[in-house]
């Protein structure tokens, strides 16, 4: 039977989120029912709830950083059992048949993966995310949270963690590599932790030095203010990899100037506005301007295991659900260190 659960939803674009109820599908052959314990608040939630990335599906229940406990399994489930600690990230399905899906790159599914929220599933029903008490997910898109990670600090890893781990791993951040993380926010702080754990020399590039002590504590070797023009002169030609986590348009030509020959500037922050580029900025030095989107299921599990091995959880502020709207405004004003996490027991 379809069940009804409590949730927080945006009833319309730009409207405040409010408590409501939503349907959850019956537990199918390969599904698990998860009692959500914690759900992270990602900047993506705000973009989508406010139609920043295009027209959304409303009412919208955001949330794709989900950590909880399995409370029921379908008869065909083999990966999980009742009581297991699990997570759900940014997608809950894909075509599973294209070359990307077969390669474990479900995030780049040729037909488009099914988002955890603000999407339509294969039956045409809207998906609802983690700002709720329970969710039903196919075991193939469910992750195991290692015992070494508490559920509250693990929740943001399902988006922020994998969003940074994937490009750092793909572009081989590690010993002997100089890596810059642009922005020390929900994404950036995990980038610093992961790049440091991978063995790279890590630099934070932030608008000001306000968070310098935090950046160094989290694993950065260096910290510079981008508001100081001298920074770009001093660091010209320095980095093998620059990962931008900011969701505002950057002067790409200026940042490309920070790269060594064959370096890469990878964007994981997604501004709502278009950006411009002088192609000579990539031609000179055979540089790469790239993007990266989350990670596949296999890589996300690899990231969780890596974070558990190295003791890397998110830096969080746990809130009650009645503070979600306040948290949105604080995220927009950069007033969080570094991820809000909703205690689902308050929903």
TrEMBL record:
Domain of life according to the entry: Bacteria
Protein keywords: Oxidoreductase
EC numbers on record: 1.1.-.-
Protein name (Swiss-Prot/TrEMBL): NAD(P)-dependent alcohol dehydrogenase
Claim: Oxidoreductase is one of the keywords in the record: yes
């Amino acid at each position: 039977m379809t069940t009804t659960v409590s949730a927080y939803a945006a009833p319309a674009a730009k409207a405040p989120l409010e408590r409501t109820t939503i349907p959850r599908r019956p537990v199918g052959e390969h599904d698990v029912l998860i009692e959500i314990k914690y759900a992270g608040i990602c900047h993506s939630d705000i973009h989508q709830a406010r139609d920043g990335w295009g027209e959304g599906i409303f009412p919208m229940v955001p949330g794709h950083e989900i950590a909880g406990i399995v409370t029921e399994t379908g008869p065909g489930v083999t990966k999980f059992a009742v009581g297991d600690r699990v997570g759900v990230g940014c997608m809950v399905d894909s075509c599973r048949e294209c070359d990307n899906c077969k390669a474990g790159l479900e995030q780049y599914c040729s037909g488009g993966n099914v988002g955890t929220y603000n999407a339509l599933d294969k039956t045409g029903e809207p998906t609802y995310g983690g700002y709720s008490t329970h969710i039903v997910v196919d075991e193939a898109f469910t992750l195991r949270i290692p015992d070494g990670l508490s559920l509250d600090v693990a929740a943001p890893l399902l988006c922020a963690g994998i969003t940074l781990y994937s490009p750092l791993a793909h572009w081989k951040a590690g010993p002997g590599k100089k890596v810059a993380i642009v922005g020390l926010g929900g994404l950036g702080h995990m980038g610093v932790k992961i790049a440091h754990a991978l063995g790279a020399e890590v630099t934070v590039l932030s608008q000001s030095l306000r968070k310098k002590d935090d950046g160094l504590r989290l694993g950065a070797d260096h910290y510079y203010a981008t508001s100081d023009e001298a920074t770009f002169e001093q660091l010209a030609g320095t980095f093998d990899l620059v990962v931008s986590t900011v969701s505002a348009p950057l002067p790409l030509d200026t940042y490309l100037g920070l790269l060594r020959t064959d370096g890469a500037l990878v964007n994981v922050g997604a501004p709502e506005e278009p950006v411009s580029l002088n192609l000579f900025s990539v031609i000179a030095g055979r540089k790469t301007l790239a993007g990266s989107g989350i990670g596949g299921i296999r890589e996300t599990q690899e990231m969780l295991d890596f974070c558990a091995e190295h003791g890397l959880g998110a830096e969080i502020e746990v809130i009650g659900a009645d503070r979600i709207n306040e948290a949105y405004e604080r995220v927009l004003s950069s007033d969080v260190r570094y991820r809000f996490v909703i205690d689902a027991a308050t929903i």
